[in-house]
């Protein structure tokens, strides 16, 4: 990455998980959100121009590691450590449940201890958490968050697992988002394993970003 410094160097390819509305959103012809603000800090620190590469899910980002992007913003997940190196955490997001109106459970803990089924997306960090919390036979596994959402909207499953902000955008009459969470997911700057030598720089940028956010008042965790 350090070789990308300079006005005429190749752009820094930034992978964006467009399913994670907690970190990135469309804003006019561009993008907004805390991940974009941090990416701009990284661009300034490296002297590189930024090129944003959209992905439909975290799984898609992970699968493109190695040659599809230079930096990404992903949940820290030990199962990804063979391909990806992670910075210190810079943001924390909640994973919760969208449940149907006929479900009596008022909390994630109560629902997880019931016998009801949960739709979840393979490859998502929250799916790995669910696999440790509930019996596998209760999990209905989709290949992506968009597939899980579509299946839930068609009536499959008693609950849909996901990040709170994207769940809030789902149009499913009678459903409700539980007020608590079943997991807190730490987000980090991700680098392909071969670029791990640049991690010290990423951590310095993250540290400065967090310090400035704290000085500005309430912001991303």
What can be said about this structure in brief?
The chain is of the alpha/beta class.
* Helical content class: 25-40%
Q: Radius of gyration in whole Å, from Cα?
A: 18 Å
**Main beta sheet:** 10 strands, mixed
Helix-strand pattern? EEEHEHEEEHEHEHEHEEH
What would the average pLDDT be, to the nearest integer?
A: 91
How many helices? The count is 7
Task: Point out poorly predicted stretches.
Answer: 3-8
Task: Give me the count of strands.
Answer: 12
Strand content range: 25-35%
Structural class: alpha/beta
Instruction: Choose one word for the global shape.
Output: elongated
Distance between the termini: 26 Å
Characterise the protein shown here.
Helix content is 29%, strand content 27%. The chain has helices at 34-46, 58-63, 108-112, 125-133, 145-153, 164-168, 199-215; strands at residues 12-17, 25-27, 30-32, 50-55, 71-75, 84-86, 91-99, 118-121, 139-142, 159-163, 176-177, 183-192. The strands form 2 sheets. Strands 1, 4, 5, 6, 7, 8, 9, 10, 11 and 12 form a 10-stranded mixed beta sheet that branches. Strand 8 (118-121), helix 4 (125-133) and strand 9 form a beta-alpha-beta unit. The chain is elongated, with a radius of gyration of 18 Å. Mean pLDDT is 91; it is low at 3-8.
